[in-house]
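2024-03-11 09:14:02 INFO worker-7 job=invfold-0412 stage=load source=structure_tokens
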């Protein structure tokens, strides 16, 4: 019988294929080193089924596939060019952006998040940027609540989302290893200036009666807005009482109807649209799956609200051969950013499927991989690395900061096994939070193969990381920040709220 339970981060499996013939049963570090291998046939041939009707789309698909075949046909995968990518991502932070980026003035928090989170995934300590991030984001806080994309601009929920993620990432890095009092000071400088009361009132203004959200007052309605709003509420420590609202002021529970709204966004294909009756899209699929998993465990969140079988079918159709990467919609080209928007869905779907399978009997089973991690890794390493640093959509496209972040997030999803652990210890704040389920995710370097119905078999999927130096950092599968950053921030809110309560009592006396 081979162990199939998830392991703690860094823990090695007690049973492994390469170690079975060793007399002493020891585990060798080179177990993960990928030996030269034949390129899988799926990467060497055009799709077996081609539409007789030629269109501009079909011609672009064939052209893209032919181009990518030339890149993925490599027996030895190229290493992750970590140093060059780091230099590419440090440049805008240290040297500034060129004048051409003025068109992205409303995306300042996004530019910070993309570069800083990508650097964190690559193993860089981005704590040195914390003070600059705080000083850059403070002017974006709107007097009426929320964050704008640039100085003096109206608040937008995506700007608030990117701002909070960036603050959470840099605070986590700069506070690691500090004494408790200094760690609390770091978080106070990073978050105590945020007007949570006004932010909450602003989010109430963009909530719709049907359970959805708008991106800003008078803006468009889509599930991206709902996901961003829930992430902001979760990371800023709002509890059930705060979100329930004040009936005397005509306030309704802020989370009322949210899950039902997301449920209504699943399409006939099985994917998720931007809103009810819209086309299925990978980015919106991730937003809905992650948002639902913020509200409950993955098995309940997905099986209760979505047709999981149709969802799995649609997600499976997004991974292409010969490319190995993902497309975002039916009949669309592969794109590196969907390594996150579709690849990131699989951790949540597998966690839900594992719970469903285990619930059928007393024996613990594991469904294993429902997607090809190896194919995505091959696509990223051979096709998405820019020759002069940065990561990109596909060969022939220039790298950029957006794709650098989301391609690396997808690489993390492929290289690590993320799973939900409902026995994970909770803080007193998370116990009162409607988002407490978001703090129960863990990771392992060891990716299990499927086990049999009796719990036997399984083993470990090998060859995902050609060399340990190519492994990137672990990221939270719902928040897309370093795994552990969410817990540190939550513990600070626990301390901050306790201190605030004491101060309030002192003032009353």
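2024-03-11 09:14:09 INFO worker-7 stage=emit residues=509
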């Amino acid at each position: 019988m081979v162990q199939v339970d998830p392991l703690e981060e860094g823990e090695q499996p007690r049973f492994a294929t390469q170690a079975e013939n060793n007399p002493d049963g020891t585990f060798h570090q080179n177990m993960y080193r990928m030996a030269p291998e034949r390129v899988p046939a799926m990467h060497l041939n055009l799709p077996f089924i081609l539409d007789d009707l030629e269109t501009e789309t079909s011609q672009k698909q064939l052209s893209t596939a032919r181009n990518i075949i030339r890149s993925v046909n490599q027996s030895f995968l190229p290493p992750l060019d970590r140093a060059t990518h780091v230099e590419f991502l440090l440049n805008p932070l240290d040297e500034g952006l060129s004048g051409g980026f003025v068109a992205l003035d409303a995306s300042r928090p996004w530019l910070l998040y993309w570069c800083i989170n990508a650097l964190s995934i690559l193993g860089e300590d981005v704590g040195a940027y914390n003070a600059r991030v705080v000083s850059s984001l403070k002017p974006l806080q709107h007097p009426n609540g929320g964050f704008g994309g640039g100085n003096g601009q109206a608040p937008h929920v995506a700007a608030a989302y990117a701002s909070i993620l960036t603050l959470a990432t840099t605070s986590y890095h700069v506070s690691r290893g500090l004494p408790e009092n200094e760690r609390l000071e770091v978080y106070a400088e990073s978050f105590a200036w945020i007007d949570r009361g006004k932010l909450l009132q602003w989010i109430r203004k963009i909530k719709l009666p049907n359970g959805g959200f708008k991106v800003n007052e008078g803006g468009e309605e889509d599930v991206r807005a709902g996901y961003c709003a829930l992430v902001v509420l979760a990371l800023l420590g709002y509890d059930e009482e705060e979100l329930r609202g004040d009936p005397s002021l005509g306030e309704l529970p802020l989370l009322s109807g949210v899950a039902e709204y997301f449920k209504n966004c699943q399409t006939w294909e099985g994917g998720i649209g931007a809103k009810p009756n819209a086309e299925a899209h990978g980015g919106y699929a991730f937003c809905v799956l992650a948002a639902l998993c913020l509200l409950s465990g993955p098995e309940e969140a997905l099986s209760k609200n979505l047709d999981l079988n149709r969802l799995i079918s649609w997600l499976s159709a997004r991974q292409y051969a010969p490319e190995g990467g993902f497309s975002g919609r039916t009949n669309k080209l592969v794109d590196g950013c969907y390594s996150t928007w579709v690849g990131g869905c699989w951790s949540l779907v597998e966690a839900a499927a594992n719970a469903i399978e285990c619930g059928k009997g007393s024996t613990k089973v594991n469904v294993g991989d429902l997607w090809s991690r190896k194919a995505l890794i091959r696509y990223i390493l051979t096709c998405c690395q820019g020759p002069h640093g940065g990561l990109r959509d596909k060969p022939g496209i220039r790298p950029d900061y957006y794709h650098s972040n989301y391609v690396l997030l997808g690489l993390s999803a492929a290289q690590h096994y993320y799973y939900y652990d409902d026995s994970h210890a909770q803080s007193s704040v998370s116990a009162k939070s409607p988002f407490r389920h978001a703090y129960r995710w863990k990771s392992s370097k060891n990716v299990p193969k499927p086990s049999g119905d009796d719990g036997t078999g399984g083993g470990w999927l090998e060859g995902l990381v050609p060399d340990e130096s190519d492994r990137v950092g672990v990221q939270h599968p719902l928040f897309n920040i370093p795994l552990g950053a969410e817990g540190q921030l939550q513990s600070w809110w626990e301390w901050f709220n306790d201190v605030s309560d004491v101060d309030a009592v002192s003032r009353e006396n």
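2024-03-11 09:14:09 INFO worker-7 stage=report msg="DSSP finds 19 helices and four strands in the chain."
2024-03-11 09:14:10 INFO worker-7 job finished
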